[in-house]
Design goal:
With 614 residues, the chain is an alpha/beta fold. It is built from 19 helices and 24 strands. The protein is globular, with a radius of gyration of 25 Å. The structure holds 5-amino-5-deoxy-1-O-phosphono-D-mannitol. It catalyses: D-fructose 6-phosphate + L-glutamine = D-glucosamine 6-phosphate + L-glutamate.
Length: 614
């Protein structure tokens, strides 16, 4: 939830750290703070609110220049978002500073123990306890890294911690458990961050830290151990995108850029997965044909937008692969007695690969010996490491809090998986799979076409900025699209927005319809005549009750025109692939409506990009 940066090298640490925080602000923006070591002294600065407030404070009162430092951008868990609770937190002597992402679950007990021992705690946070524990452990000797290892052994919960100490002026020390932390390896300088975008302007060489590891970062090198101090094996990797991918590139918001990048993201996610003979190659799933044939049930677990991709996966998997498929909110999955076995394949979908609920669901499935496949966008994140296989979506960095290009690429990934299973299990003829793969390959151009026709959608969105509520209806794969449209509007425009399965309308939701209420309806292709005609009836029913109908239908669908106050046409594609084109207008709609209301669409209130706490 929070963003973390650490630096040691030859450059002014404050500049590197603040630049890194700017790239990580999407992770949390309740407050920001920095700590720099200069001339053996620790200087800290922190401010509630967005990074701009901290920048202003630093300009007014610049800290002494140093070449070692760290910074934090916060999404509040313990204690309100004010200056006092902003990180870094320091110990009683002011010589140790700590920043933290996650939740220390036994902090109340640690805090009581510290207070009894005479420590004065100045904030409401769980983090501050760590600074004081370090103070005590440093007295026992062994230096900052050893002190942090000892402290970590006492902590429960999820944490990334980074600490600096005036007594160890050449080292930044970090620790991770269930929360992300990556190392950037530079030349005479090294970096620590919650994700690579923080240091991508300086280096594309990174080290993935494992669970329960402590890293010592010096200008000349990096040392990693486990919490007991034993040297740990680490995995190095090269980041395959550069700094331009993490910048706005002329757009007002990252979200606008990411919506526009979707044709490329879809194309990149298909790349290298279709052989010259038209057969799918998904070695990344790390499942032999025999294992895939043994699978008798698939369970998809995910949260938020990724969950909506999971709902669409169910239609694709059941239709193409002929396997029963359940879709479960990751946060509910492990608290239910789900029936899993070694022949169950659990697919966990997560853009960030750090969503705690998704990670916990994966661990729960692992305990029950199910096979695990991840769909993830972030290389080096935790989820891929905990799964047997992973299909990376090649969306590139998604920085806006609202997920857009990640969703479309997750859909591509689930289509590929469903078709691949069909290919291996022979549930569809080879030429049927091939024909669908060819249609998939044409989707980037279809998405591009949608993007070219979005001006009327933007106009419509602006005209609805004064509304209090918008409903979304869909059937079949249009139902998860309706849910996704509603979620985008909620999180960006802070409006009451709800998605319904159109068939459920008469079982209750129709009571919500009143004069001029905007209702967005996603219409299935005409080729699905029964579904199509039923939803056209639904449109008539709501219009008869005064709703303002906004209809998304395929080009050339004349039957909906008479009942649509606004008609948004999208290219005609097969039903299962339709979410790739029908979701895009809903993203544009939410983004424009929120902008018209004056909201910051990249950083909606109360939210953060990755939800790394349960
Ligand atoms: O990183 P993940 O895909 O696991 O994130 C899951 C949700 O938190 C995420 O999709 C969230 O719902 C988005 N902000 C929606 O736009």
């Amino acid at each position: 939830m929070c963003g973390i940066v650490g630096y040691v090298g030859a450059k002014p640490a404050l500049d590197v750290v603040v630049e890194g925080l700017a790239r990580l602000e999407y992770r949390g923006y309740d407050s920001a703070g920095v700590a720099v070591l200069a001339d053996g002294k620790l200087a800290t600065a922190k401010r509630a609110g967005k990074l701009g407030n901290l920048r202003a404070a630093l300009e007014e009162e610049p800290p002494p220049a140093g070449t070692l430092g760290m910074g934090h951008t916060r999404w509040a868990t313990h204690g309100p978002p004010n200056d006092r609770n902003a990180h870094p937190h320091v110990d009683c002597t002011g010589s140790v500073a700590v920043i933290h992402n996650g939740i220390i679950e036994n902090f109340a007990e640690l805090r009581a123990e510290l207070e009894e021992a005479g420590h004065g705690l100045a904030s409401d946070t769980d983090t501050e306890a760590v600074a004081h524990l370090l103070e005590d452990e440093l007295k026992a000797g062994g230096g900052l890294a050893e002190a942090l290892r000892r402290v970590c052994r006492r902590l429960e919960g999820a944490f990334t911690l980074v600490a600096v100490h005036t007594g160890d002026p050449d080292v930044v020390v970090g620790a991770r458990r269930n929360s992300p932390l990556v190392v950037g390896v530079g030349d005479g300088e090294n970096f620590l961050a919650s994700d690579v975008s923080a240091f991508i302007a300086h280096t594309r060489d990174a080290i993935e830290l494992g669970q329960d590891q402590v890293v010592e970062l010096r200008a000349g090198g990096v040392q990693v151990t486990d919490f007991e101090g034993r040297p740990a094996e680490v995995q190095e990797y090269h980041v395959d995108w550069d700094v331009s991918a993490a910048e706005k590139g002329g757009y007002d918001y990252f979200m606008l850029k990411e919506i526009a990048e979707q044709p490329r993201a879809v194309a990149d996610t298909l790349l290298g997965r279709i052989g010259s003979d038209g057969r799918l190659r998904l070695d990344e799933m790390r499942m032999s044909d025999r294992e895939l044939r043994e699978v008798d049930k698939i369970i998809v677990v995910a949260c938020g937008t990724s969950y909506h991709a999971g709902l669409i996966a169910k239609y694709a998997i059941e239709h193409w692969a002929g396997l029963p498929c359940e879709v479960e909110l990751a946060s509910e999955f492990r608290y239910r007695d789900s029936i899993l076995s070694p022949t169950t394949l659990v697919i966990a979908i997560s853009q960030s690969g750090e969503t705690m609920d998704a990670l916990m669901a994966v661990r729960h499935a692992r305990e029950q010996k199910a096979k695990l496949l991840g769909i993830c966008n972030v290389n080096g994140s935790t989820l891929p490491r905990e799964c047997d296989g992973v299909l990376y979506t090649h969306a590139g960095p998604e920085i806006a809090v609202a997920s857009t290009k990640a969703f479309l690429t997750q859909l591509v990934a689930v289509y590929l998986i469903a078709l691949y299973i069909a290919q291996v299990r022979g549930t569809k003829w080879g030429d049927e799979v091939f024909a669908m793969v060819q249609l998939l390959e044409r989707m980037p151009e279809k998405v591009e076409k949608v993007l070219e026709t979005m001006e009327p959608v933007r106009e419509l969105a602006r005209s609805l900025a004064g509304e209090r509520c918008v409903l979304f209806l869909g059937r079949h794969v249009g139902f998860p699209v309706a849910l996704e449209g509603a979620l985008k509007l909620k999180e960006l425009a802070y409006m009451h927005a709800e998605g319904f399965a159109a068939g459920e309308l008469k079982h209750g939701p129709i009571a919500l319809i009143e004069k001029d209420l905007p209702v967005v309806v996603v219409v299935p292709p005409r080729a699905r005549a029964v579904l199509h005609d039923k939803i056209v009836s639904n449109i008539q029913e709501i219009r008869a009750r005064g709703a303002r109908t906004i209809v998304i239908a395929e080009e050339g669908d004349e039957s909906v025109g008479p009942y649509a106050d606004t008609l948004i046409s999208v290219p005609a594609v097969p039903t299962l692939l339709q979410p790739l084109v029908t979701t895009v207008p809903l993203q544009v709609f939410a983004c424009e409506l929120a902008t018209a209301k004056g909201h910051d669409v990249d950083q909606p209130r109360n939210l953060a990009k990755s939800v790394t706490v349960e």
